[in-house]
Structures are given as C-alpha cells and as structure tokens.
Request: fold
Amino acid sequence: METDRPDPGLYPPDRIGLAAAAARAAGLAALLLTPGPDLRYLTGYDAHQLERLTCLAIPAAAGEPFLVVPKLELLAALASPAGGLELEIIPWDETDDPYALVAGRLGDMAGPMGLSDRMWALMVLRFRDALPGVRQDLASAALRALRIRKTPAEVAALRAAGEAIDRVHARVPVDFTIVGSGPNAASPHHEISDRALQPGDAVVVDIGGTMPSGYCSDCTRTYVIGAPPPEFTAYYRVLQGAQEAACAAVRPGVAAEAVDAAAREPITAAGYGEFFVHRTGHGIGLECHEDPYIVSGNAEPLQPGMAFSIEPGIYPGRSGARIEDIVVCTEQGHERLNHATRELVCVDAR
Amino acid sequence: METDRPDPGLYPPDRIGLAAAAARAAGLAALLLTPGPDLRYLTGYDAHQLERLTCLAIPAAAGEPFLVVPKLELLAALASPAGGLELEIIPWDETDDPYALVAGRLGDMAGPMGLSDRMWALMVLRFRDALPGVRQDLASAALRALRIRKTPAEVAALRAAGEAIDRVHARVPVDFTIVGSGPNAASPHHEISDRALQPGDAVVVDIGGTMPSGYCSDCTRTYVIGAPPPEFTAYYRVLQGAQEAACAAVRPGVAAEAVDAAAREPITAAGYGEFFVHRTGHGIGLECHEDPYIVSGNAEPLQPGMAFSIEPGIYPGRSGARIEDIVVCTEQGHERLNHATRELVCVDAR
Reply:
C-alpha cells in the first residue's frame, strides 16, 4: 500500500501567510479552519473530521496562527506536514473546552471570523457562542482566490489523477465502477442496483476518486452493450460535438458561463436542450466539487490554473449519455487531463 | 457487490412524525436536515453531501414536512426509501435558490430552527441569511433522544457489523487493516506508515467501518510480534481487567461517566493513569462517533438500547495497547457485540 507522504511541492510553507493576507483583504479578522480541504491546502494535514475540535486559527492582522488538536491527535498532527511548519500546535484534553481556548487566544476581534465552508454546524454554533457578537462568514471569501488557481505541482497531481482514471476506462468492459445502465443512465448520480446489463443498454460510467495526494479525479464515458438503442447514435454525436465545443471555448478571460453556453447551444439546437438537466461542470482540486462552477449565471472570467470538469449530458429518459473530462485553463487555452477515447464504444453483449 | 437495499425494519415510516414531536418538545420551530446520519435515520435516504442543497424540512407544528433535492438527484431520492414515505419531494433547478425555496415554504417561524449537527457552514450561513432573525440551534436537541436508543433492528445491524469485524480479527495476522506498531502504537489514531513490523512490537489493530446498512462498527485488539516488549505483559493484564470492569458496569441507570471511572480506576491504581489519554468510549450507530460519550463529566444515565464502545488504552510511549468492544445496554445489563479473543495474541515474527 502506498504511503500518504505528499509531494513537498504541493504544500509550500508560505500558504498560511498568504491566507492571512487574503483574510485581511476580504475584511475578515481571522480564519477558523476545521479538517477538510482548506486545512489540508494550507498545512498538508489531512486530519480526521470528528466531533472533537481540530482547528487552525489564523489571525488576519496581529497575532500568530495556531493549530488546536485533541491531545490524542497530537502525534498525528506533528507527523503530518503541519509539524514541519512554524506553527504552534496546542493539544487539548478530553474534558477541556477547546472553543473557549480558541476564543481566548484570539482575544477581541475587530471583524468577522471566516469559517471553513465544510465546518460542521456543531462547531459553527459553538464558535458563535464562544465569540458572541462576532459575525460569521465563510473562509472561502479569502481562500477561494488562492485555491482556484492551481500551481504546477497541483496540476501535476490532477494530471496523475486523470491518468489513473484513463487506465480504468481503458479496461472497460473488464471492470465497471459506477455505472447507470438503461433507464438508470437517465439518473445522473445513479448508484449501484441489481439491474443486469442488457443488449441495447447505454451504460454511463462515471469514475471519480481521490489520489493519495488528496487531489481528485472525475471522468465519464458512455458505453453501449451490443447495438445502440434507437436515437442514441444521433444524440451521442450531438453530445460529442457539444463537449468538444465547450473544451475549445476554454481560455483565459472567457466567462465560466460562456463555456456552459458553448456546451448547451448545440444540444439545444438539435432539440435535446430539455434533456441536459445539469450544469456543464464543476471545479476540482482537493475537493471533487469546488470553484469555479461552469454554470449559467457565473460570469467569473477563467484564469490560467483553474481546473474543472466539462461534462454535458443528454438524458431523454429511456437512455442517457454523458462525456466528461477534467480541463485546466492554461495561458494558451486549455489542457485536457483525460484522454480515454470519446468515440462511442460498443461492448459485446454476453 | 452487495446492493444497498436496507432492511425495511431499519426505517419505520413514523420517524418523521416522532421527530416533529421531539422538535416541538425541544422548543424548535422546524428541523432542517442535510445529507448525513439524521436524514438517513429519518428517511433511509443516504444522500450525497454536496455543495448543492438537499434538505429535509420538518415543521414542528403546523405544516407538512418536505424534501428539497437538486433536480438531478430526484430519481435517486425517489428510488430511496424516502420515495416510499408520504413526503413531498421538491426538485430545484441548477439556477434556482433552494434556500429561498425552503424559507418560503416554512413561512414565519415562531422559534429557532434546528440544524443537523453535520450541516456544512456553507449551508448554515445561507439558512441564517434566508431566515433572518431566526435563531439557529442543533437538531440533535430533538433527535438525540430518538437516535440514542437503538431499536431491535438497529441492534441487529450493529451485531452484524460486530461479527464482520470479529471475522477480520480472526484472520490476524493474515491481514492488517489499521495498525500502529511500536512507537506508533502510542498514537491512538495513527495511520499507515512505512515502518516495518519488528519482533517485540505491540501492534494496535483498530478496525472500523460502515456496513451497507449504514451502521458502523469499531473494534480494537492489540497483538505482539514475537515476545512482548518490557512491561507490556504487566500493563496489558491491567488493561484487560479495566475493559472487563467497564463492561461489567454497564446497566440501565448507571451514569456514562461511571463506566469511564470503572475503566480508569484500576489503570490509575496500577500507576498507568497518565497513559490513558482518552475517554473510555463513544456511542455508535449511523455515526461511528455519536452520543452517548463515555467520558468524565457525562452524568447521563444509560438506558436500554444505547450502544457505545468501551475502549480503554494504555500508551506509555515506547509501546501501547487498547482493547475495544461495542456494547449495548440491555434491560438486564449489557450485551457485547464483539467476541474476538481479548487474550494477548503473540504473532510469529517472520
């Protein structure tokens, strides 16, 4: 089994300082980050999300950052990349109040606290009570601008994730991982059922996962068992063209919603618009779904280093298809991170 | 692969009504439950926790409960046990505001909203803004009394989980799942490293996981490679006695903290008190850690149907040991759900 030792380039030691500056710029007085992608991004510490509080507190102005951990996680925290940072790590005992500990160390706050987006309500409300009168906002107001543009080391981690999935698609039909067949192909997030594959089924194979690096991958191909069902070949061609057009639209300065429109336009023109029931894509990195979202209404201009899925789908109800790749916006345009064939693959009916 | 079809007895259809009554009794005007153990407990729907809002809203008094889901999750929600309940399921489109939708349906609220403990801050703050002036509290104020006493069907699910782990321990040393060896055995939540097992190592094997039913399991045994390290046999005997004493203390009416004390007393008396650095146990069910916690300061009396771990540990630093079983409080006393031997097992050094 692979050890979870991260590429040191993934976690440059200056990130906490950059986060403090970003918090200041966003008008936040401090960031409070519980286990999850924000904490991992800033420190490399992939901590357990548990009912016991683990929290990285980063004052935006005066004061040093500190990491509060349950005493029984201290050795794990020290062994993580966080142990190599100039960061005070403060253990708390089972019967201590860690929220009071954090509030006491932060002292009087001259602005709102920014909470990690995935912090549990359990902790949100404890911090509300421990820091009365201090407004709560999301830490993403400060951190999204850092996390949304991937560094070369992060793009390399995403590329490795994409290659891992390409290898799995190359083994189809040897293995199926997440599949929706026949009518279930029309349910975009369908999970496993006991429906047996039948000739004429379209099979949507959406493979996602997280690498030891923490970086995620996500790639969909649609296969057909035996001969394609009625109409399928026609709308699959439309879908292929739409996915191609959306990828081609990716370059710096283009609005995220323009990429969504580039996928949607040919599908609508061919009469399948009502069957494309979801956005075109989602950002990806330490979270499988993160900023930027490729959706109508998101006017944010794309920038080099932004990574996201391009995954139009057509689900007429009796069958369905989706084609998904991870794409990174580059200075010149874009780079696809998945290369498994997008041609229609018909699998022997056995 | 096993399908995820739950035992129908696990999800009796009256739970939403019981939750509304419990919310009323707890002074909450409504419960707002995003994907996680609360939603699964009440409806059987094991939904994805994503940035898109899925939320079961349960008015405490007037008004019917409803489940808001992203449109692309509608088929999945309908296919889950939630689809068989008398429960309105309302899909929302990618560009809708689902928070406004929930707030609009709830109307004026005469008391606080109760949020699922694991709701992400992202959603907590959106609900705060969508329902201005309505205080936010935790749904566990209402739901913990329901969830903390397991039904016979739930105990059966926990028993099956315990048996699954017992089978794994019976295969030691064929497979190791989560192990901390030598100095790492002193880090209670140690994860995988590349340290090779050595003769004289104590190996703490803590196996947890979730069954297809959603119910969790957790069981620890400590093995020794070859001959035990110095002092180990002595404190392992103390630990075995402490775990036995704590289990024997479990019966209705006994305070949770008294069970902690029953484990701690013999360890302290033998001079190892400072090396027992964590609480004695945690509740278990749809969450691997839930109420009741077996910890100093928790005076809650045990009741039949409460299920929790009993897992004292001694970690002197150069080695460590823990013995953990899941125990259910019964009318007569208790039932252990793990039966793998608690005698010291020495594994051949190879």
Chain A touches chain B through 46 residues (CB under 8 Å). The two ends of chain A are 35 Å apart (CA to CA). The first strand of chain A starts at residue 30 and ends at 33.
